[in-house]
Amino acid sequence: MIQPSLRMNGIDVFQALLPPREQEALLADLRFVIRQAPLFRPVTARGTPMSVRMTSAGRVGWVSDRTGYRYQTMHPDGMAWPAIPDRVLDLWRALVSETRKPDCCLINFYGEGARMGLHQDRDEADFSWPVLSVSLGDDGLFRVGGTSRGGKTASVWLTSGDVIRMGGDARLAFHGVDRIRFGSSRLLPRGGRINLTLRVVV
Ligand code: SIN
Ligand code: FE2
């Protein structure tokens, strides 16, 4: 079993897990997914556009619009979500489970100035499965707290190739991304940060 290089509020951080070549290969897989299921900018139920653009791969994808947020089997443009790339599934097998596959691979894209407020991942049916999260491209300042809002938080800069596993008591930890260092990585030629979140949903 691969050991995390850091534990923060119960979250396992695997720093520099993916070497540059692996990051490039993963990026090529993601470009293939995004060509079939383009990134879109979700709006909250109140109609506020999110700063992050997103799409998904897998049986279900996460969407948010004026009617609220949920998992659904179709992209907002009507097509089915593409399959989760094998390379992504390999990571899941190595760090989470060899038997159960994730149902969703959410792809978040952070352009200049994008961020994600503190939240819990709790739209899934079974919290006994960890959430696995992969960072690619520009550095992101990741913040994690406890399972109730307003508690103490800790922060770490996630860099390209870092992987996080949120399981056990930390499965429902509040977390978010305060800011990115736009242009800090050369993985994406035009800058930005990609985060993949793998989850068992159903
Ligand atoms: C998320 O919680 O959905 C994204 C986390 C991240 O971008 O690292
Ligand atoms: Fe999240």
Question: Care to describe what's here?
Answer:
- The protein is mainly beta.
- It has a single domain (6-199), classed as Alpha-ketoglutarate-dependent dioxygenase AlkB-like (Jelly Rolls, Sandwich).
- Helix content is 13%, strand content 34%.
- The chain is built from two helices and 13 strands; from the N terminus they run E-E-H-E-E-E-H-E-E-E-E-E-E-E-E.
- The chain has helices spanning 20-36, 86-95; strands at 6-8, 11-14, 53-58, 61-65, 68-72, 104-110, 116-119, 131-137, 140-144, 154-158, 163-166, 175-180, 193-199.
- It has a seven-stranded antiparallel sheet, covered by helices on one side.
- The mean pLDDT is 97.
- Fe (ii) ion binds next to loops.
Arithmetic mean of pLDDT = 97
Termini separation (Å)?
26 Å
- In terms of structural class, how would the helical and strand content be classed? mainly beta
How many domains? The number is 1
Query: Which regions are unreliable across 5 or more consecutive residues at pLDDT < 50?
Result: none
Largest sheet: 7 strands, antiparallel
Helix content: 10-25%
Radius of gyration: 16 Å
Quote the beta fraction.
25-35%
Strands of the widest sheet, in order across it, are 1-2-11-8-13-6-3
The coarse silhouette is globular
Oligomer: single chain
Q: How many helical stretches?
A: 2
CATH architectural grouping: Sandwich
CATH superfamily: Alpha-ketoglutarate-dependent dioxygenase AlkB-like
Give, in order, the helices and strands: EEHEEEHEEEEEEEE
Fill in the CATH topology: Jelly Rolls
Which CATH class? Mainly Beta
Number of strands: 13
